Amino acid sequence: MIRLLQYNNDSEFCLTTFFGDKIPQKYAILSHTWEAEEVTFKDLQVGTGAKKAGSNKIRFCGEQAKRDGLQYFWVDTCCIDKSSSAELSEAINSMFRWYRGSTKCYVYLSDVLKSAINTNRLSWESAFQNSKWFTRGWTLQELIAPTSVEFYSKKKELLGDKSTLERHICEITGISAKALRGSPLFSFSVAERMLWAKQRKTTREKDQAYSLFGIFDISMPVIYGEGKEKAIKRLREEIDKASKGFNREDFSVVFSFSNVSSVERFVARETELIEMHKELSGDGSRRTVVLHGLGGIGKTQLGVAYAMRHKDSYSAIFWLNIKDENSLKQSFAKVARQISREHPSNFRLSNVDTNESFDKVINAVKAWLSRPNNTRWLMIFDNYNNAKLPGNIDPAAVDIRQFLPESYQGSIIITTRLSQIRFGHSIQIRKFRDVYDSLEILSNASRRKGLRSDPDAIKLAEELDGLPLALATAGAYLDQVAVSFSDYLRLYKQSWKQLQKSSPKLDSYEDRTLYSTWQISFDYVKQQNSLSAKLLCFWAYFDSQDLWLELLQHSDLNDPDWVRQLANDEVSFHQVVRVLSNHGFVEADMSSQELVESRGYSMHGCVHSWTVHVLNQAWDYDLSKLATKFVGAHVPGEQNKRPWLTQRRLLQHATRCSYMFSNGLIKEDDMAPICHNLGILYADQGKLVEAEQMFQRALRGEKKAWSPEHTSTLSTVHNLGILYKNQGGLIKAEQMYQRALQGYENAWGPEYTLTLDTVNNLGNLYADQGKLVKAEQMYQRALRGKENAWGPEHTSTLDTVNNFGILYKNQGKLVEAEQMYQRALRGYEKAWGPEHTSTLDTVHNLGILYADQGKLVKAEQMYQRALRGKRKAWGPEHTSTLSTVHNLGNLYADQAKLVEAEQMYQRALQGYEKACGFEHTSTLDTVNNLGILYADQGKLVKAEQMYQRALQGYQKAWGPEHTSTLDTVNNLGILYSDQGELVKAEQLYQRALRGKEKAWGLEHVSTLSTVHNLGNLYTDQGKLVEAEQMYQRALRGYEKALGTDSTITYVPALNTFWAFGSFLELQADVAKSRTMYAKASLGYEKVLGPEHPRSQSLRHKLRALDAVVENVALEE
Prior knowledge:
The chain is mainly alpha-helical. A hairpin with a 5-residue loop joins strand 6 (149-152) and strand 7 (158-161). The termini are far apart.
């Protein structure tokens, strides 16, 4: 039963009583401190409540509830009939549940005011921290129980809620943030919950016990007149009953972990602790939790932490070491001594030290644990790593079931490295995911502070990858040796074995050192499956992550027999890996990434270091060569299904191969084809520096093995040409292409397909150099040859068709460009599918074309489709993905979405600088466009810095007459014009115009853009004749290049209409001016939308001109 308040039709509040399932699901509740003149239940009954000061709080609660859409509300002063002892007792026992069920809890702080002048936190924070509300006993449950708690000042101003004020509340109360956020209260020890209430007071002393009923989830009768001491005693008894069960006193054993290393400052694992407590809580029947995971992952420490936290919940806790049968029997003897000391009359053995056999001791302990009502004990079996399981032939293996009490009661925790231990609830203990947890272990072990802001400490924590043993080992070493975090990381990478051997032994870990912890498990693996042991050794020559079956299926007759057996078929491979998985060495990769081959397996980075430095102390050059051969042989070609998915998986293994090459750990004999394939992999993934290194290795090997004219040599030369072009090294690229072309023509003739591929790529190079005539000649030759050799729909033919589209677009032939793109797109979708990277490249190119045509909606659709596909195929940092990100920035800039544009440019710039370097032309393109954006935002100093950086880079990479160089010259001219430096601006415009006319021709859209800018400049200089000539020339050129229809949707042309309209308006030629404005307005509304600032500005202009015309007509 609960009484709730609501407003009646007279705007007065009245009470309604609800029972059982009729209680409303939503209601508000008030939390406050009692003061003089509170409104009671009787006051409401007789109608005297409105006259009391306390009615102000009730009215506040009701009005706030109404604002929050809540009809009902509850206030403790007047919703309980305290004259009825039965009702009062029921209410006190129900209070926590009522607060927890509320939709909103409003805390009214009568001693906190917000300043009328300064409403920031400093003005009321001190009063909030010192509020008496935090000192009262009843308000503890009122803070913890509700989900939503809002704090209000005396003037009913919202100060914040339990979430936004969490830091302050934690500091004031000492209550854990997890408790405030709703973590189950049983996950906090009795002692910790008692501590929350220790400093709180109640008006009636016995209420200090009654106010804690909900905190401990107990109910008991309220006996007024019993006094504080009796109430507290009864509360303690009820807590003990709830946690330990009845008759516990007959089976209590003093908690002692004298033979177990203590865990000081236990870190994280809160989720696991809560899960363990949930699974082990019950009615006394048997509950078992199995903690399994890699050695050194912290299973033992978690068991200790659980026992320490919940020791009050158990009558007895026993720790047993089950690493072998002898250790387990010794542990049982210690347990027997503990029981015998405290229960000599109830224990079967009189002398457990010397006179009894271990079997009798074990049976006696099991019998005592199986006695009726002895249900609240906890046994922790630690290090159950040599279990008697199918396949384990070790005679020393232990069967834990022989050592468990026969009665189905009590709680059991088992720690093990074995994932096959299946009885009970299994919890896999994994590495720390949050680097701050790793830093906390490092800090505790090293006794060094401030690690969260130390970049070297963060790097070390990331390298140790959340493995507690590795972190504790590092911390212990750093505590004893005066080295920095960066020095330790260097030693870890360079001298792993020596460092680990010299590190301090850790009392809190069974095997004491990172160096030795996995050796025992490895010995078990060797006993069970020699192939599993060999695979673990072989893994050292691959990356630690994602090793899968197909990658290992490239062996030949020259390779060891065990390698062929290992990857003979899927069943054999998984059988071998399962042994490693059972012992915690590896885990199946369950990531959500798309795959075209089988799922892989991964090992922790620290385990991988151990396999390198311990299992492979004598480096095996044959295995390093074999692993590299497998990686290189697995690089997919375009004919493979979605090759980019496999490429991305291979990249980390290729990085491992590169490391071994660079450090002389692979003999390079006969490795040229493998290096060539790895170069292709790196190039496709945008890793251009690594690609060049691999191609150069391949070229050295091919020169040594074959002649310079051999097709394999020429293929590498050709791929180096592609690489140099992508790096912006156009001279070197042309040299490679020409060398490859001559070699192919001599060896195979001018119509050979590889010859034509080189011709096509020379066309790409000439296009990038602005040599458009030569580029078109190359494309024409390549296209004719490919159509003859492959047919019009072959993907190689389509590559050249796509390149023609790019060329025509750059020549301003936008109709022809679209035709080429559409042909290429249809062909690619038919041949490769809609998600292939070649398809996406053409989609991206269509986006550029549509943007140039002013079709911005279609352009964004193309860019977004390309971006989704490229992220999926290449990842977010690949240069192809960054190109689309960059062009989305261009589009958003054209749409005046300047914030979104800057985000895209900055993202692209960071990616390009990382992938290509600071002077690569793709990087410079983004720098140039950031300059444009900053200029549009009025950030002229930043704009000039961007332009100057881009100009210097372009001149170095392309030369002073390249079109990209000229575009930046043109942009600098615009900037100087905006700054009023008209002479400098004209010089730059003239330079840009001369260069563009030479490169593009008189009517190219890029040329016309500079013509337009000269028109603006001449207008500003008062050279009106020259200005009009420029505007007229630009408009004629746009119509010729784009056609009349496309001109009015092409934004640069619309800008010229507007500028020419402004020029004519200054000349008082209202009619012509209005015509220009109207064309621009129509176009902007069509392209950018009617709400775009340009559209709105032009509508205003047109209205103003119409008003002028109307006034002139009236005057006449």
